[in-house]
Design brief:
single chain; about 450 residues; mainly alpha; two-stranded antiparallel sheet; elongated; disordered C terminus
């Protein structure tokens, strides 16, 4: 993969220190149009009324695919994803990128929100700032064509399915939606429509479905329940402040956290528009396909949450579990337990990062998580390897009372191969013998 160091990063700036001696200060990496419009479309998806992480991740992938196709049309170098758009010579790249991102986000988000109004104003101002010319008009046309191809390809995806959710009979092991999960979750079943959405790279929602969770009568189930019972309770005596730091960090929306952090990684690497568009499209597809599969499995298996399992442990047929009628978790979520949303998302993004950057690396992530009242978020966590992110996420969701350890482990094992399958043969260079691609 070709990397382009930003001039400011490469050359730096020369300033005088306190001693009068010249010293070099490295300038911070800067946005290009791809990362800028990734940032600008994020709030529209993240504040989408009635839509959660799965819907946001999937829609975000469509935005990035359209941007990728627009950039490839003008710059070349990679095979298009949906359509090989014909770009006139000299078509303005910034106009194409902004238009592709804006048009897909604006069309797919079919609910008026303040964030969508802000996006309208941002796009109008951005386009107006580009001097009028044939180049500008051609760039806009390229962006519109790339967006149109993406929107047409996904027109029959079942994303807007309006099937009403109804709780099943409250049998042991079966999840029940609660009217209000807590102050941070919406009423009813979260993102139920995503169980019907057809993936981008598979024929049907359940095409890559993982196996069911372990039976409740197994000793391994009892051990997993006991762990979350002790460490994940709201007032746990064994959960340390450092453990709660991890819980709080990972309470931020997965879509918001991962979109911001992967964008920051791309910016820090100094990738140009072509490589940025490919990187964010790879990561977008990884996250979108992972979350679609995750939500399909959630509503297929309908596995109860730890708080339901612990409160009703006398009904699970396992002599090694002990019920607590008033047990409450530190954090709640309002969708089935298995598989784990953050577990799926984290494993998908880690797999995508390895594909984009060719292996493992250390990274620092940021968060604004705030779902543990009275416990301030430590806004950064540093990891020596990408696998440490998956491990930390697993710990956080168990210690927060949200998931069984067995669920976190199963999610982490399942998603990487699913993502590799989704990426196989896509985002390839036009000359495969020159550079690495996503195999």
């Amino acid at each position: 993969m070709r990397l382009r160091l930003l001039t400011g990063v490469l050359l730096g700036a020369i300033v005088l220190g306190a001693t009068g001696l010249a010293r070099k200060v490295l300038a911070a990496p800067a946005h290009n149009a791809v990362t800028l419009w990734n940032e600008r479309t994020q709030p529209v998806l993240a504040t989408w009324t009635g839509r959660g992480n799965a819907a946001q991740a999937y829609t975000g992938s469509l935005v990035q695919i359209a941007v990728y196709d627009a950039v490839v049309a003008i710059r070349g170098g990679y095979r298009s994803f949906y359509a090989a758009v014909e770009a006139p010579d000299g078509a303005n790249l910034d106009a194409a990128i902004a238009t592709a991102a804006y048009r897909v986000a604006r069309t797919r988000v079919n609910v008026a929100t303040p964030a969508r109004d802000t996006l309208d104003n941002q796009y109008a101002a951005y386009i107006a700032a580009i001097p009028d010319s044939q180049s500008k008009d051609d760039g806009i046309a390229v962006g519109e064509a790339a967006a149109a191809a993406t929107l047409a390809a996904r027109a029959g995806d079942n994303f807007y399915n309006t099937a009403a959710y109804t709780n099943p009979p409250p049998d042991p092991g079966v999840w029940q939606a609660t009217s209000v999960a807590n102050d941070y979750a919406t009423a009813g079943a979260n993102d139920y429509a995503m169980a019907f959405t057809i993936p981008i790279t598979a024929r049907a929602p359940g095409a890559r479905r993982l196996r069911p969770s372990i039976p409740m009568d197994r000793k391994k189930y009892a051990r997993s329940l006991h762990e979350v019972q002790e460490t994940g309770r709201k007032t746990s005596a064994v959960r340390t402040a450092e453990m709660t730091d991890s819980v709080q960090f990972w309470t931020e929306s997965g879509f918001t956290l991962w979109t911001r952090n992967t964008r920051d990684i791309v910016i820090a690497r100094g990738l140009d528009e072509l490589e940025s568009s490919r990187a964010l499209a790879v990561l977008g597809l990884a996250g979108g396909e992972g979350m679609l599969a995750c939500w399909d499995a959630k509503y297929q298996y309908m596995t109860w949450r730890p708080f339901q399992a612990i409160q009703r442990a006398d009904e699970d047929g396992n002599d090694d579990t002990v019920p607590e009628a008033d047990w409450a978790p530190l954090v709640r979520a309002n969708h089935p337990e298995y598989p784990a949303g953050h577990g799926c998302y984290g494993a998908a993004m880690v797999t995508g990062l390895r594909k984009v950057f060719g292996g493992d690396f250390a990274v620092t992530l940021t968060s604004t998580g705030n779902q543990v009242p009275g416990h301030p978020v430590v806004p950064t966590r540093s990891y020596a390897s990408l696998d440490e992110i998956v491990d930390d996420t697993a710990n956080a969701r168990v210690w927060g009372g949200l998931h069984f350890r067995t669920t976190m482990d199963a999610s982490a094992r399942w998603i990487p191969q699913l993502v590799r399958d989704a990426l196989k043969g896509r985002f390839k260079r036009t000359r495969d013998d020159d550079h690495r691609d996503c195999r």
